Each structure stands twice: as C-alpha cells, then as structure tokens.
Amino acid sequence: MEPQTQAKKSNLVLILDYGSQYTHLITRRIRSLSVFSLCINGTSSLDSITELNPCVIILSGGPHSVHADGAPCFPSGFIEYVESQGIHVLGICYGLQLLVQNIGGVVKVGEKHEYGRMEIEVQKNYGLFGNKQIGDKQVVWMSHGDEAVKLPEGFEVVARSNQGAVAAIENREKKFYGLQYHPEVTHSLEGMETLRHFLFDICGITAGWNMEDVLEEEIKVIKAMVGPEDHVICALSGGVDSTVAATVVHKAIGDRLHCVFVDNGTRREKE
C-alpha cells in the first residue's frame, strides 16, 4: 500500500499490542490524562492503522524476542507510513526493540537480563527527559532479556540503566522514541510524568477527551476491524452486554451484522 498523503490527524493515541500484561494499563493511563487511546493487535494491517488516522502510535511491550520465529511485528510499510505522516512513535520495551531491529539497528540477547526495579540515569536533558520535573536518576520497572546494542542512524541514547544497558533512545527528527522500561506501571516512579511530557510537550496533543466520546470512537474501531465488505455473527442472549454490543456493531456496519439468539435458560416465562 502506498502511504497516504499528509492529512489532518485525529487526537488519537493508537497502541499496537504485542502481548504485554501491561498493554491495557497504557490505555488507561493515557485516558486518565483526558486523551483518547485505543488498543489493537500489533500485527493489524496497515489499512486498519491508516483508517484510524492516529497522531501518536505506541508499540507495547511483549514476552517475545525479536529474533524468534514468528515474532509479532508491525505491518510492512509501517515505517514509511509514520514518517510520511509525521506521526510520533514511542516503543516501550519490546516495542523499542522492534523499532531498532527493523530500521537498521541491532538487538542481541543481553549479557545481564534486567527484571524488576532498577535505576536509570538520564544522559540527555532534552526530548524524552526535557521536562525539568523528571529527575536525572529514576527508579523504573524493567522486564527484558534482549537489549539494543547498536542504534539505527540518527538515534541517540538518552538514558542508561545502572548496568550500562540502553534505557531510552530517540530520533527527534523522525519523531521516533523508545523506552526500555515500563512507564505505565506505578513501580516506575516518574513514568506517568514521562508519558504526560511525551504526549503534551513532545507530541503536542490537546487534552479534552471524555467518556461521552467512546461510542463514536468504538464505531470507528469496529469499522476498521471488520472492513468494508465482511459480515459479523453475534450471539445475542438478550442480556445487557450482548444487546449493547449488537447495537453498537449495528451502528457501525448495519445489515452486515447477523444476530443469533441464544436461549440460555434464564429468560422469564414467555419472554
């Protein structure tokens, strides 16, 4: 697919999920800042991503190694798309390694695996750490065995762990950033402030989302997931959950939704 021409971005932060137990926590943390975020499968098609028209994309962590057969990755054409659209990309843990491995860097199995609370030291007081409220030394939560040992052209290391491993990288010109630790968990003591700084100061996002916007955004996600021609079958029991789900999906795709009533034995007599 050819990258689409530059278009006005939504205020959406899109999270590509690579299997981390913390991925949905990223979503909640961002929404708590009054910014809308959505989480989709990290191997989703490029068409699914472009239709959502995000202004920021976050690559989540995950339990995989980038060297493993079948390791999940963003779709072909992803790097060209985000560069052409000027989209900020933040890789977290495995997401950082995906960026490095796929744009000319080298990721290897680390000599010392890093798990749990660790201290990092900021080496560059700009970009990811340009916020004066973020200290030069931080306690963060690590969970990785692989590490970036050679960065792609144009990247620089902006923080290292107390073991000397790469902890944060960035290429401000291309708007690519990476954190080897998990800022979304409370164990990373300044992680929330780092996310806030990234979204508002670096990416220029404006806060203003609230729960009233959920329906509109969920309809957009369903349309992107289903596509323009596919049909959906919905098991409908008549309860609140399945009825609401069916209603929302019908708003998104109309008569391409086919509901099958499931009698679970809990309906009232003659209902």
TrEMBL record:
The lineage of its organism: Eukaryota, Viridiplantae, Streptophyta, Embryophyta, Tracheophyta. Keywords: ATP-binding, Glutamine amidotransferase, GMP biosynthesis, Ligase, Nucleotide-binding, Purine biosynthesis. GO terms for cellular component: cytosol. One of its GO terms (molecular function) is GMP synthase activity. This is GMPS ATP-PPase domain-containing protein. It comes from Solanum commersonii (Commerson's wild potato). Pfam families: GATase (PF00117). InterPro entries: Class_I_gatase-like (IPR029062), GATASE (IPR017926), GMP_synth_GATase (IPR004739), GMPS_ATP_PPase_dom (IPR025777), Rossmann-like_a/b/a_fold (IPR014729). The keyword Signal does not apply. Residues 209-271 form the GMPS ATP-PPase domain. ATP binds at residues 237-243. NCBIfam families: guaA_Nterm (TIGR00888). PANTHER family: GMP SYNTHASE [GLUTAMINE-HYDROLYZING], GMP SYNTHASE-RELATED.
